[in-house]
Design brief:
Length: 75
C-alpha cells in the first residue's frame, strides 16, 4: 500500500491547515480528480488533519517496530 497526503510545517497556523484541508476535500471530489485517481487505481480517502496526523503516528510506530525487529540500518 502506498499513501500520499498534504503535510505542512508544525508551525503552520491552524486556520491555514484547515483551509488547505478544505481545498483538498473539495478538489478531490471533482470529476477530473476522481477520474484521474480511478485511472491509476487509487482509492481516495479524505480525512481531517487530526485523523491524518494520527495515521502518520500509527504508520511511524508500525514501521519503526518492524525496522527495529529486523535490525535495519542506514548505510
Amino acid at each position: 500500500m502506498t499513501w500520499f497526503g498534504l503535510i505542512a510545517p508544525s508551525s503552520t497556523p491552524r486556520g491555514i491547515i484547515n483551509k488547505l484541508a478544505d481545498a483538498w476535500k473539495t478538489g478531490a471530489a471533482t470529476a477530473p480528480a476522481l477520474t484521474t485517481f480511478e485511472g491509476i487505481g487509487a482509492d481516495i480517502k479524505v480525512s481531517t488533519p487530526q485523523q491524518f496526523a494520527e495515521f502518520i503516528r500509527a504508520e511511524n510506530a508500525r514501521w519503526g517496530r518492524l525496522i527495529q525487529k529486523l535490525g535495519i540500518q542506514l548505510d
